[in-house]
Amino acid sequence: MTLEALRDDDTSPPHGLDDVSDLVRRARTAGLDATLTIEGRRDGVPVAVDRTAYRIVQESLTNIARHAAAATASVRIDYRPDALVIQVDDDGEATQDTPPVPGVGLLGMRERVTALGGHLRAAPRGEGGFTVQAGLPVGRTS
């Protein structure tokens, strides 16, 4: 998979959740069997959360292309009343015995998520592969 397929050009406006399906499509075009699942109703997601969610998916798919030697990836976006949860899983080479090496991409994700009051978990999955899960508060009350 070529990383260029997942990069944005510098002249385009900032991307958000509306553009995640295009990221997944580009990953498929580049040879990764990627899927997107969206749960819940999108309602009142703040702009900063919207852009951060896109960047998490983009960086996760880029990391899969760069490091995972994965055949498949799944992207799940779950709109909840108080949070937006993003999860990206792959079936790559990571195992419980190979702890993640925090590179610039993971550190950048963690900084963005923390700045919004959210949480990020990035770790090998028990069944093999790697998972990135971010919870971003949306600041709504019911």
Automatic annotation (TrEMBL):
Instruction: Give UniProt keywords alphabetically.
Output: Kinase, Transferase, Two-component regulatory system
Which reaction equations make up its catalytic activity? ATP + protein L-histidine = ADP + protein N-phospho-L-histidine
One Pfam family named in its UniProt record: HATPase_c
The UniProt record lists the Histidine kinase/HSP90-like ATPase domain at: 51-138
GO biological process terms held by the UniProt record = phosphorelay signal transduction system
Question: Do you know which InterPro entries this protein is assigned to?
Answer: HATPase_C_sf, HATPase_dom, Sensor_HK_TwoCompSys
EC numbers on record: 2.7.13.3
Q: Which organism is it from?
A: Amycolatopsis arida
Q: Does the keyword Magnesium apply?
A: no
| GO MF term list | protein histidine kinase activity
Q: What is this protein called?
A: histidine kinase
